Automatic annotation (TrEMBL), chain B:
Highest classification ranks of the organism: Eukaryota, Viridiplantae, Streptophyta, Embryophyta, Tracheophyta
GO cellular component: UDP-N-acetylglucosamine transferase complex
Single GO biological process annotation from the record: dolichol-linked oligosaccharide biosynthetic process
Residue stretches making up the Glycosyl transferase family 28 C-terminal domain: 14-168
Stated name of the protein: Glycosyl transferase family 28 C-terminal domain-containing protein
InterPro entries in UniProt: Glyco_trans_28_C, UDP-GlcNAc_transferase
GO molecular function: hexosyltransferase activity
Length: 233, 179
């Protein structure tokens, strides 16, 4: 083969490669936009069976608000229930376990069928240096991925702590890849009156949450796609 | 209880100060100051009980035998609900848990914001509830003025919230029938 043909062959190959890459990227983008569009609309079909639900717990006030919400959700619709809390947060899983055990006692179901409880590694502890944080964030992401592969919930409920970001991000990727469609519901804390928290802001701007609820009217004015629901507490 | 003890119990009006699990020395030292103690005694309060949390400032205890305020303190309690219930006035840090626990018990509340905290979104909640006249809102520097000027009769009771609107939205979104 003389040089002329050689050059045009590699030129065709690189054009082909570039075109394929552009094509794949465009496909992914279209798929992402489609997922975002579908997520913003209610499910088109009537729900006929219970939905597996992942509940992300955060420390203190976050857990109290989440338990308030769980109290008014019909337990036979949101089943089975999985709870995740940060590895260093002892109180939240205990409180959730209490709730589930008392529910089981009421219904006469065996305690082993009550919700499943898991801990997740935190991306970064308060005051941790930024260099070590890069590693711990990676570990947290891998751990979140592992948990999400196991659980693949249909519904995710979260209300603020940083632990929810890796999980919701992975849930979004699962939606795009067609692994599992999760409806993500985020309730902004009652303590947020004028500004969204960082978690809330990320989930709102990136359109990762299907529905984002706020408890004070000023937030709904500032963030028109948010849904004002009044105070939970 | 004898008649005299019952009478004393009846006249007992406790000011309960709480900082939750935080450290808030500026509030404790403000409450411990002489003019705050005087204004509370002048308003008819008999006891001042301070929950210190992780703070290091220790107030001066007092029996209150000379007609001044009786002062006592402790660091933590597994549940401050009982202390809140027996208080006539609550002065609290701006944590949402403390605030709503107190408002649910319909106790008069003065919230003091800790300006040393880095991200002070807590003040948003206290300011909003103060605007709606559910509590008084102060900083450690103007706590005395707030206490001196406050009229607890102007406070409005806080009606408890309701999580059912959220549940309704979630159910509708997922296609579950309305109850």
């Amino acid at each position: 083969m003389d040089k002329g043909n050689g050059c045009s062959f590699s030129a065709v190959t690189s054009t082909a490669i570039i075109s394929s890459v552009i094509f794949v990227i465009t496909l992914i983008l279209v798929r992402v936009l489609f997922v975002i569009y579908c997520s913003s609309r209610p499910m088109s079909r009537r729900a006929k069976k219970p939905v597996s639900t992942l509940i992300i717990l955060g420390s203190g006030g976050h857990t109290a608000e989440m338990l308030d919400l769980l109290a008014v959700l019909q337990k036979d619709r949101f089943y089975p229930r999985f709870y995740i809390a940060a590895a260093t947060d002892n109180m939240s899983l205990q409180k959730a376990e209490l709730l589930e055990n008392s529910l089981a006692a009421e219904n006469g179901t065996p305690i082993t069928n009550a919700g499943k409880f898991m801990k997740i590694y935190r991306s970064r502890e308060v005051g941790q240096s930024y260099i070590t944080s890069i590693w711990t964030t990676l570990v947290a992401m891998v751990h979140a991925l592992w948990l999400m592969i196991k659980i693949r919930p249909e519904v995710i409920l979260c209300n603020g702590p940083g632990t929810c970001i890796p999980i919701c991000a992975i849930a979004f990727v699962f939606k795009v890849l067609g692994i599992r469609w999760s409806s993500i519901f985020y309730v902004e804390s009652i303590a947020r009156v004028r500004r969204l928290s960082l978690s809330g802001l990320l989930l709102y701007k990136l359109r990762i949450a299907d529905q984002l609820f706020v408890q004070w009217p000023r937030l709904q004015q500032q963030y028109p796609r948010a849904i004002y629901v009044g105070r939970l507490m | 209880m004898g008649d005299r003890e019952e009478e004393e119990e009846g006249r007992r009006r406790v000011v309960f100060v709480t900082v939750g699990t935080t450290r808030f020395d500026a509030l404790v030292s403000a409450v411990d100051s002489e003019n705050v103690r005087k204004v509370l005694a002048a308003k008819g309060y008999t006891h001042l009980l301070i929950q210190l949390g992780r703070g290091s400032y220790l107030p001066t205890k007092s029996d209150g035998d000379d007609g001044s305020l009786a002062v006592d303190y402790f660091t933590f309690s597994s549940s401050i609900a009982d202390y809140l219930r027996s208080a006539s006035l609550v002065i609290s840090h701006a944590g949402s848990g403390s605030i709503f626990e107190t408002l649910r018990l319909c106790k008069p509340l003065v919230v003091v914001v800790n300006e040393d905290l880095m991200d002070n979104h807590q003040s948003e909640l206290a300011e909003e509830l103060a605007e709606r006249k559910h509590l008084y809102y102060a900083r450690p520097q103007n706590l005395y003025q707030t206490l001196a000027d406050m009229d607890l009769n102007t406070l409005l009771p806080y009606s408890p919230g309701d999580a059912t609107p959220v549940a309704k939205h979630i159910n509708r979104f997922l296609g579950f029938p309305d109850d």
